[in-house]
Design goal:
- The protein is of the alpha/beta class and about 325 residues long.
- It has an eight-stranded mixed beta sheet with strand order 1-2-4-3-5-6-7-8, sandwiched between helices.
- Helix 2 packs across helix 3.
- The radius of gyration is 19 Å and the shape is globular.
Length: about 325
């Protein structure tokens, strides 16, 4: 069932390797038969069965970027962690490449839980997940369906269904606007089939226009500079397939988020263009084990890699409370 993946052996992350944890490459498969690649981080000299956390995101990034940083930092704090590439991206398997799917990418989180649940050094009753950016929404969707996930943190979250179906700030929330999107995307499907390949949407712009919106500048500062550029990152290079967004128009990933019984922590930057996603998602959650934390002055990508801004102490407290 497992596909043979070609995994990079050298350290090729956008962050410095920690001397406090052991790092290794691992693979596991989801229930669609796609083999996923992950980096595992284990606290040095750890003993017994540990609480574990699976990390993924941002949307269009790879595990060598923000997800890996989070995984390493949380491993330093005593958790066994994995940062994985979603299906069709990075070092993970799946064809065609550079496709996003609300179903399969939610399944990727569940597959990570499958993998962690059977590790000898993991307590299967103490597993949590962290989703960043677009994978914050996927993490909530996974938490809504997978009762094994005892705690979920979503940072600088995007609801990919909402932004695709309604546009930013719901500015395109009409049947006519959605029809035009469907029309264009289905025309692209025809063109792709005729051409025998999938057209790419392009990642973050290579040259930043002077009049670029703030959020574009924000992404450029991460994905297109030495700070966060990675050769396998979709956003750093040619982006997703144009038609990747099609299924999000019909499938609202947060449909049952109000039924999540286990703990949820939403963290967002005050000045992030995307902050409304977390605020609105939090309003829908039920229970006294749900929390929204707004970071004063922080923009969207600050929560990708700015370790003096990302509240790792808060996340450690959260996961220790609900996992340990």
């Amino acid at each position: 069932m497992m596909e043979q993946l070609s995994l990079v052996k050298e350290w090729d992350k956008t962050f410095t390797r920690s001397e406090k944890v052991e790092h290794s490459k691992v693979t596991f498969h989801n229930r669609y038969g796609i083999t996923l690649a992950a980096d595992m981080y284990v606290p040095k000299n750890a003993k017994g069965a540990l609480a574990a956390i699976a990390v993924c995101g941002p949307f269009g990034a790879v595990k060598e970027q923000a997800a890996g940083l989070y995984a390493q930092m949380m491993a330093e704090r005593g958790f066994l962690t994995i940062a994985f590439d979603p299906s069709f991206t990075g070092e993970s398997g799946g064809m065609p490449r550079y496709v996003a799917s609300p179903d399969i990418n939610t399944e990727d989180f569940q597959a990570a839980v499958d993998f962690l649940s059977v590790q000898e050094n993991v307590d299967p009753e103490k597993i949590g997940i962290i989703g960043i950016c677009g994978w914050g929404g996927m993490a909530l969707n996974a938490a809504a369906i997978d009762t094994r996930i005892k705690a979920t943190a979503a940072l600088t979250m995007y609801d990919m269904s909402r932004v695709n179906a309604k546009g930013y700030f719901d500015s395109e929330d009409s049947e006519e606007a959605r029809y035009e999107k469907r029309k264009a995307l289905n025309a692209q499907r025809t063109a792709d089939y005729k051409n025998g390949k999938y057209a790419l949407a392009g990642g973050v712009v290579d040259t930043l226009p002077e009049d670029a919106p703030f959020f574009v500048k924000d992404y450029f500062d991460y994905y297109k500079t030495d700070r966060g550029y990675h050769a396998r990152s979709l956003n750093s290079n040619d982006g997703w397939n144009v038609t990747s967004s099609l299924s999000f128009l019909n499938m609202p990933i947060l449909q049952y988020s109000q039924e999540i019984r286990n703990a949820v922590l939403l963290i967002h930057g005050e000045k992030a263009h995307s902050c409304y996603f977390s605020k609105d998602a939090f309003e829908k959650l039920n229970g006294d084990n749900k929390e929204l934390m707004i970071i004063p002055g922080a923009v969207h990508t600050d929560l990708y890699d700015q370790t003096d801004i990302i509240p790792f102490d808060k996340m450690t407290q959260f996961f220790k409370e609900y996992l340990v």
